[in-house]
Structures are given as C-alpha cells and as structure tokens.
Amino acid sequence: MTSTSMAVGTGVTIEYLEKFPNFISVCASWTFGQWGCQSSGSYEQAQGEFEAATKTSMPLTLVAIENAVPVGMVTLANHDFEGSPLSPWLKALFVHPFHRKKGIATRLIEQLEEEALRLGCKSLYLITEDARLLYERMGWQAIDHVRTPYGAADLMEKVL
Length: 160
Description:
Number of domains: 1
Order of helices and strands: EEHHEEEHEHEE
Oligomer: single chain
Number of helices: 4
CATH topology: Aminopeptidase
CATH superfamily: Gcn5-related N-acetyltransferase (GNAT)
Strand content: 25-35%
Largest sheet: 5 strands, antiparallel
CATH architecture: 3-Layer(aba) Sandwich
Number of strands: 8
Mean pLDDT: 88
C-alpha cells in the first residue's frame, strides 16, 4: 500500500493485520465460523494462519477497520484449494453482515490485488460458491467448476 492506511468510505480504512494483532482472534472467529466448522478445520488452525500473517510475504491479511473495530478481511496465501498446484490465492474474503453493501469487499479485493503485484505475483486464484458475479465485475474469470466441502464452486483467476 502506498500509505499506511487506505480509506474505503466514511471512517473505514484498510490496514495490515500484522499492525493489529489484537484483531487476530476476530479474524480467526470469522474464518472458523464461515468456513472452518464445515471443512474439519479448527479455530486454533485459523488463529495460527492469522498469527503468521505479515506485510512482506504470504500469508498477508488485510483488515477493514471502522471506528477502531474490524469490519472485514481478506488474505493473500500460497495455498487454499486442497490438491491444486495453482498459487497464490485470494482467500477468506469476509465482511461482517452489518457492514455489507458499502463497497468494503471491493476495496479489500482491489487492495489485495495491489499487494499481490507488489510481491511480484502475475495472477491470482480463488474459489467461490456464491460470489462469482462480484469477482466477474472486477475482472476475474471462471476457469473451472469444482466441489468444495460447501458444495459446487467456481475456480476463478485474475491476471494482474
């Protein structure tokens, strides 16, 4: 990021999780609640992934913050989809339900794409069960259909 924070909307900034270790437990709770409890994951596993997040290499997690409270997150990681040789991945995009429809997910995705470029990535991949249209509006393309623990999903790619 060119500055230490990137304004999203009124009072929302995007920061590196590494700068806010007190938000690790929130991110781990969101991740476990949204995905982990359905895929034999654990809260401790999710927490460990966020504790490893840095701003200089992967995994790298960005957090959207409003009024000193985390309202969303996204992670750039080497791996996400079991058995796939593709890398790197946009994963764990989550915006708290009270803060949706404000453009926060779009800013998180855009900022993560910038971070991926900064780290030398040429393209990104993701898996989504229900947000294909969001990503297509942002230039992503579905390249395959796959099955996840949550059901049918699209494997998507964006060339940066």
